[in-house]
């Protein structure tokens, strides 16, 4: 169903939450932002991005608002809720633990 | 809160579906446009950019579908579709649906009805504030042959207990009583209570109008003449006059001032009180001057409120010590053969008769069984119906339907069926609650007498209570899951190809197991009902000792203050003479007690100067034995010549004769009541035993004396043997009473047959209901057997056809089918009998002279069951033998 196979399961949520933590963004710019920040390593497909956004909205972690973009069109901007912020913190901790652990394993000589 | 938020979001998605759809479209469009713009910026021409973007984004429809899915919309859509589909399926199989709904309605309805009885009678909490701090205090009395509980207090002992205990915030006394109201119109007898003035404050029941009693208003005997009346009496006698306080009402002809009206819900601890009189007025109202000072006159009960934080067992200990202390100073039994103590019991517990609780629990379990059998049967029915749809199911599985989707669809069908059944069940429950009082004319308890114990009150049960509706709904859903889960799971486990080929030759193991379970449960119920019915039969067979036919009884109570000395005797003699000559009346008698009213005037006696223990005293008119049909076994009965100035004489019952004299001739021996030492009576006759207390109790030692000779007695039953119906006889008798004294109410009028019927009411109630439930179980289980075999035969038509074509005799075919069915039944029967052996123990205490595992009943149940099963097997077998081989082979 199109979760990028190189993304660890559940990491997409973390990426989305992190990406919109600074300021609200719409779907397109979330995808672009992830791509840019990861220097084109991580390419999020629409096929996983939008279902994930709708799921996160349903969970109550993000909310959406229709606002004009810099080009003047209106787009659906997503932003973190208080619960989302908490969730982001939790996921970040998890990620640190996990990546640290993986590092320990792979860097062992 | 989080969960609620999610639900809210989900509902928003559902309710504003159009808006959500629109937003989804716009969001996708925005993304697409952004992509196109990016491609154009990268140098593509607009047309190429557009198609490249469309390619990049993939299947938009699928993407949107997945977004909807994530919003949890699909489940709603699917549920709506499933519901629609389920309705169509149920309508298509109208007969099956009707049968299922009907059986469910019966099962759930009966369970709801019995639950409402069980709840109101046993489980419902006491309706007072902080009721967990309320306890009942009882004196107990342990003799070598056992402990007597549930005794009332005497006033001096109650006062001692009150002053010697520390665990209670306050203690109140109350006693059920009947009072004559003689103000206007027909004089009336109403129930009420004598109460200590702490009663209302202790229970925390404030007056609706005026006031209740003030603390310590009851310290001076025979004052104050004030009364609190019930809401009902206020409406009936005073037309709901708000200025009723200060008015006068005559109670036993003594004027009382009304000080308040109780709130509508309050009927006193006896649940039938219409008025409350301070206990200090009891001597005046009862005309027994020593009512409050006699230490051994036990006549009222005590309820107490614990101090906050005091546990019931601490209070119990406190009371026990108090009783022990005052018993040391003033022993109730100087011979010290009995030990006296006390106990404190939580109010709710004290109000529940253990036998009523047991009977209702058993009935509740029984209806639960019926419902379970119904569910098993439906489960089996649905399984075969689902399997009949195997082609459809296989097709859907083959083209990729999810198994859970199928399970959800089948579950929707079952739950819909259960919900319809549940709604119909409310009608059934209401009907049952309407019909039940027919089984039980006078309440489950002692003939409708006012008691402290909670009885069965059908009027108090309203199915509209949210609790019962919730119970009904919950039960329906549980039942739906119960009978729906197995078939749904079973079907979803089908292999896609199986549906086309093999499914119909499965061995139906699940259905067989369910059938055995049904049979076993039905057998347990049948055995329970059988044992109860046998007990009921034995009760009906008990010789009450009287001939109740065409006997009419009613009661009269004369106000003692207006009928001093010999006046009551005169009154009753005059009344007896006048009612004896009424049209249709063949014989008439009076007596202070009549059989099966649960009362006895117990006194201690000596025989030939020897201590003879407790005897039951009956003061009767000379014609009493003849009127009631009590046989004279020896000697003579009373005559009009046995009067106050002639030597005292007594007649004794057969059991008294046996107890006092063994095989010796009792005639001409003497018997004396300890309370009246001067009246040594010569025994002139022996009569047959009659049951005065509960029908299942052994006969007492009954002593009869003539009312012409004994002390005058103000309250008596009048017994008439009349060819006329009760209504006309009573109104004629009432007119005669009115001629003698217009202010004496005639009350408790009934027929002796009714009294006898009431005596067996409790057992009749349980046994008839159990029998109905067991019958229902038997029918449902038989239908199950029939259904399974019919289905098997129809599925094996081809096999049977081949067998017949190859020369099998039709009788052989029939035998195979019957054997197949009976084998299952026998397995179920054996398991059921084993279960019954364990389960019928619950009935102990409800049975009279029948052991819970009565072998005869068990054999009869087995016989009944096997014969029903044979019938249920024979019908499908007959169909099997009629299979035409040609048709059968073409059948496929």
* Cα separation of the termini of chain B: 60 Å
Q: Please give the radius of gyration of chain B in angstroms.
A: 38 Å
Strand residues, percent of chain A = 5-15%
* Total beta-strand segments of chain A: 3
Helices of chain A, by number, come to 4
Helix content, binned percent of chain B: 40-55%
What's the main sheet of chain A like?
3 strands, antiparallel
Q: Structural class, from secondary structure content of chain A?
A: alpha+beta
Shape type of chain A: globular
Task: Describe the protein's topology.
The complex is a heterodimer of chains A (109) and B (892).
Chain A: H1 11-19, E1 25-26, H2 27-37, H3 46-59, E2 62-68, E3 74-80, H4 82-106
Antiparallel strand pairs in A: 1-3, 2-3
Chain B: H1 2-15, H2 17-41, H3 46-57, H4 60-70, H5 73-92, H6 94-123, E1 134-143, E2 146-148, H7 155-164, E3 168-181, E4 188-195, H8 199-203, E5 209-210, E6 226-229, H9 231-238, E7 248-251, E8 254-261, E9 275-278, H10 282-286, E10 301-306, H11 312-329, E11 339-346, H12 347-350, H13 354-388, H14 390-398, H15 403-439, H16 466-492, H17 498-501, H18 509-541, E12 551-557, H19 567-580, E13 585-591, E14 601-607, E15 610-620, H20 624-628, E16 632-635, E17 649-653, H21 654-661, E18 670-673, E19 681-687, E20 702-706, E21 715-722, H22 726-740, E22 747-751, H23 752-759, H24 761-795, H25 797-805, H26 810-839, H27 855-881, H28 885-890
Parallel strand pairs in B: 4-9, 6-8, 15-20, 17-19
Antiparallel strand pairs in B: 1-2, 1-10, 1-11, 3-4, 3-10, 5-8, 6-9, 7-8, 12-21, 12-22, 13-21, 14-15, 14-18, 16-19, 17-20, 18-19
What's the short version?
The complex is a heterodimer of chains A (109) and B (892). Chain A has 109 residues and is of the alpha+beta class. In chain A, α1 packs across α4.
């Amino acid at each position: 169903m199109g979760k990028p196979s190189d993304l660890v399961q559940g990491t997409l949520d973390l990426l989305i939450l992190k990406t919109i933590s600074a300021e609200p963004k719409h779907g397109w710019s979330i995808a672009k932002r992830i791509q840019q920040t990861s220097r084109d390593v991580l390419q999020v497909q629409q096929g996983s991005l939008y279902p994930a956004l709708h799921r996160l909205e349903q969970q109550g972690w993000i909310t959406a608002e229709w606002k004009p973009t810099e080009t003047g069109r209106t787009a659906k901007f997503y932003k973190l809720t208080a619960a989302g912020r908490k969730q982001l913190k939790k996921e970040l901790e998890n990620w640190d633990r996990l990546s640290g652990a993986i590092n320990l394993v792979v860097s062992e000589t | 809160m989080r969960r609620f938020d999610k639900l809210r979001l989900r509902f928003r998605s559902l309710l504003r579906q159009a808006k959500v759809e629109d937003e989804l479209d716009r969001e996708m469009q925005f993304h697409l446009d952004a992509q196109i713009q990016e491609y154009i910026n990268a140098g593509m021409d607009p047309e190429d950019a557009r198609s490249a973007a469309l390619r990049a984004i993939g299947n938009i429809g699928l993407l949107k579908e997945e977004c909807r899915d994530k919003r949890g919309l699909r489940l709603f859509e699917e549920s709506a579709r499933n519901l629609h589909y389920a309705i169509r399926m149920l309508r298509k199989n109208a007969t099956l649906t009707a049968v299922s709904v009907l059986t469910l309605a019966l099962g759930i309805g009966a369970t709801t009805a019995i639950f409402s009885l069980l709840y109101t009678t046993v489980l419902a909490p006491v309706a007072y504030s902080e009721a967990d701090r309320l306890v009942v205090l009882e004196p107990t009395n342990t003799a070598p042959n056992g402990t007597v509980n549930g005794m009332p207090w005497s006033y001096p002992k109650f006062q001692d207990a009150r002053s010697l205990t520390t665990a209670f915030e306050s203690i109140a006394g109350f006693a059920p009583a009947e009072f004559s109201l003689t103000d206007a119109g027909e004089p009336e007898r109403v129930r009420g209570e004598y109460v200590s003035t702490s009663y209302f404050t202790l229970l925390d029941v404030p007056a609706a109008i005026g006031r209740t009693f003030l603390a310590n208003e009851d310290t001076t005997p025979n004052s104050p003449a004030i009364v609190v009346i019930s809401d009902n009496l206020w409406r009936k006698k005073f037309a709901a006059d708000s200025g009723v306080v200060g008015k006068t009402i005559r109670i036993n002809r003594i004027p009382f001032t009304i000080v308040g009206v109780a709130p509508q819900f309050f009927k006193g601890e006896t649940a039938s009180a219409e008025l409350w009189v301070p206990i200090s007025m009891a001597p005046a109202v009862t005309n027994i001057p020593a009512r409050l000072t006699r230490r051994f006159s036990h006549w009222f009960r005590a309820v107490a409120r614990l101090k906050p934080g005091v546990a019931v067992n601490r209070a119990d200990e406190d009371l026990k010590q108090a009783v022990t202390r005052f018993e040391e100073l003033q022993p109730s039994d100087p011979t010290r053969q009995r030990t006296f103590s006390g106990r404190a019991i939580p109010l709710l517990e004290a109000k529940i008769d253990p036998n009523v609780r047991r009977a209702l629990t058993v009935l509740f379990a029984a209806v639960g069984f019926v419902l379970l059998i119904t569910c098993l049967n439906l489960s089996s029915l649905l399984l075969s119906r689902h399997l009949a749809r195997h082609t459809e199911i296989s097709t859907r599985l083959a083209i990729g339907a999810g198994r859970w989707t199928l399970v959800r669809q089948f579950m929707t069908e079952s739950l819909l069926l259960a919900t319809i059944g549940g709604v119909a069940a409310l009608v059934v429950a209401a009907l049952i609650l309407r019909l039940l009082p027919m089984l039980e004319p006078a309440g489950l308890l002692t003939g409708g007498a006012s008691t402290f114990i909670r009885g069965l009150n059908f009027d108090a049960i309203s199915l509209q209570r949210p609790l019962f509706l919730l119970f009904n709904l919950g039960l329906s859903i549980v039942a739906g899951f119960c009978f729906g889960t197995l078939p749904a799971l079973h079907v979803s486990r089908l292999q896609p190809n199986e549906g086309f080929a093999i499914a119909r030759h499965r061995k139906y193991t699940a259905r067989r197991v369910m059938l055995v379970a049904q049979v076993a449960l039905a057998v347990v119920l049948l055995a329970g009902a059988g044992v109860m019915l046998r007990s009921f039969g034995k009760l009906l067979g008990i010789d009450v000792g009287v001939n109740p036919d065409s006997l009419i009884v009613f009661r009269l109570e004369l106000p003692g203050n207006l009928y001093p000395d010999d006046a009551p005797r005169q009154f009753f003699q005059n009344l007896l003479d006048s009612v004896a000559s009424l049209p249709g009346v063949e014989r008439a008698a009076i007596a202070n007690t009549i059989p099966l009213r649960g009362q006895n005037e117990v006194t201690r006696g000596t025989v030939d100067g020897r201590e003879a223990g407790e005897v039951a005293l009956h003061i009767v008119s000379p014609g009493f034995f003849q009127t009631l049909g009590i046989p004279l076994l020896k000697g003579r009965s009373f005559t009009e010549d046995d009067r106050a100035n002639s030597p005292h004489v007594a007649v004794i019952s057969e059991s008294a004769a046996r107890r006092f004299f063994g095989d010796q001739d009792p005639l001409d021996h003497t018997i004396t009541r300890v309370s009246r030492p001067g009246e040594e009576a010569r025994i002139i006759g022996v009569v047959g035993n009659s049951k005065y207390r509960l029908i299942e109790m052994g006969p007492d030692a009954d002593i009869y004396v003539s009312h012409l000779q004994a002390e005058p007695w103000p309250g008596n039953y009048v017994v008439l043997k009349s060819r006329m119906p009760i209504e006309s006889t009573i109104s004629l008798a009432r007119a005669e009473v009115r001629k003698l004294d217009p202010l004496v109410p005639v009350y408790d009028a009934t027929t002796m047959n009714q009294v006898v019927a009431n005596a067996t009411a409790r057992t009749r109630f349980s046994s008839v209901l159990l029998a109905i439930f067991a019958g229902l179980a038997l029918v449902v289980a038989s239908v199950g057997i029939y259904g399974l075999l019919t289905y098997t035969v129809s599925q094996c038509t081809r096999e049977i056809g081949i067998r017949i074509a190859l020369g099998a005799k039709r009788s052989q075919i029939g035998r195979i089918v019957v054997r197949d069915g009976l084998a299952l039944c026998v397995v179920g029967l054996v398991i059921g009998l084993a279960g019954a052996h364990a389960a019928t123990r619950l009935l102990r205490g409800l049975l009279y002279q029948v052991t819970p595992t009565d072998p005869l009943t068990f054999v009869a149940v087995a016989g009944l069951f096997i014969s029903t099963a044979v019938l249920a097997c024979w019908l499908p077998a007959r169909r099997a033998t009629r299979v035409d081989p040609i048709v059968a082979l073409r059948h496929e």
